[in-house]
Amino acid sequence: MLSQQTIDIVKSTAPVLEVHGVAITTVFYKNLFEAHPELLNIFNHANQSKGRQQTALANAVYSAAVHIDNLAAIIPAVKQIGQKHVSLGIKPEHYPIVGEHLLGAIKEVLGDAATDDIINAWAEAYGVIADAFIGIEEEMYVASESKQGGWRFFKDFIVVHKEKESENITSFYLKPADGNMLPTYEPGQFITIRVSVPGEKYLLNRQYSLSKASDVETFRISVKKEDEHDPAGKVSVHLHNNVNVGDTLELSAPAGEFSLDVEKTTPVTLISGGVGITPMMSMFETIAKNQPSRKVSFIYSARNENLHPFDKDIRSLMETMEDAEYVSLYSDEGDGFITKELLATHAIQSGDVYICGPVGFMEAMINHLLELGYTNEQIHYEFFGPALQLELVQA
Where does heme b bind (predicted)? Predict the structure, then answer.
């Protein structure tokens, strides 16, 4: 338990962290990687270069300061971040290293304003928060490896099939190199791929949604080929251009809290844009196989027909379902956007809604739904990177 003095000091620093949070986390990552370059094998370099990771960490530190007297309030966020950590192979021994450099960055940025009392209070608070992360992540690791076919950290997989789904999306079917069966996973979850890319000094990690229903034979990921000059595109370009059938990739076990509630029988609306369709394919196929009478509305937007993956697959699955609707739009055609009016007609008011796509797309979709009277509890969404704050209307 934290002392009241520590709680008071940490809460009093929250406004300062709100102002200087990104500066602190930017210094933190710079110093961390200078002292421990081996950690570059874990962190997503693209998110670092775009400032996403710095902003996400600043938001997390600020939230911890605000809620330091009631840490139970941030447990949902800890679990969400913990899912990402487990998929990257974060270990307990990483936390003291992070703590040392986070405190050092606070001192460096705030200077004399970071008194010994403030640094000591934050050191004590960080220890409690780190213990919460370590405990929750250990539970996740144990749950993952205790499944039939489960494992901890990374494991070798063989590419057994490669299929072009659209002009810019290719699917990779992956089978365990040891020949074991796969663990089951929740529709909507993701895996992390860790690769060595020619010309890169450190390993690169990227998280990809599993894009088909769970089975014991293969995973499928469906990867959009990004711009070759974009830091975020290094892994996707490598997979598209250099990884072929018979090659080996390292994968983490499935993780993530964005998943279809398969216990419910109530209606479901799936809304996605671009490559955000991938977790929806897992959800839709799962419903088709296990709950063919469940009411579903699948709403999807792509730029044009050439960039539209899985169209035939969706239509084929619909033939096995009793009450499924499918709406696809192309933004290049001018009126092919998912508007509030379209959602009012095709989204199902009485059920849950799952959304995946670019951040701006998700903001628009969630705001439309809130304005239409959907509750926050009905709306579920997934990010492609660190959990940045969305600009949402108040429900």
Answer: 85
Smallest CA-to-CA distance from 64 within 24, 91, 29, 109 is with 24
pLDDT in tens, 100-144: 999 999 999 989 888 999 899 989 888 888 888 899 999 999 999
Residues forming beta bridges with residue 270, ordered by sequence position: 298, 354
Distance CA 277, CA 221 (A): 11
Active site residue 108: no
DSSP 180: P
pLDDT at 48 over 70: no
Flag whether pLDDT at 194 surpasses 70: yes
Burial (CB < 10 A; 0-12, 13-18, 19+), residue 82, is buried
Binding-site residues for NADP(+) sit at: 274-279
Is 137 among the residues known to form the active site?
Answer: yes
Q: Which among 95, 141, 185, 381 is annotated as catalytic?
A: 95
pTM: 0.87
How confident is the model over 210-239, as a mean pLDDT?
88
Length of the chain: 395
Please name every residue paired with 250 in a beta bridge, in sequence order, or none if there are none.
156, 194
Give me the catalytic one of 137, 186, 226, 285. 137
State the first-to-last Cα distance of the chain, in angstroms, to the nearest integer. Answer: 35
Domains of the chain: 4-146 (1.10.490.10), 154-252 (2.40.30.10), 268-382 (3.40.50.80)
Q: Which residues are annotated as a binding site for heme b?
A: 85
Q: Which pLDDT band holds residue 75 (cuts at 50, 70, 90)? A: confident
Q: What is the pLDDT of residue 394?
A: 43
Q: d(Cα 193, Cα 188) in Å, to the nearest integer?
A: 16
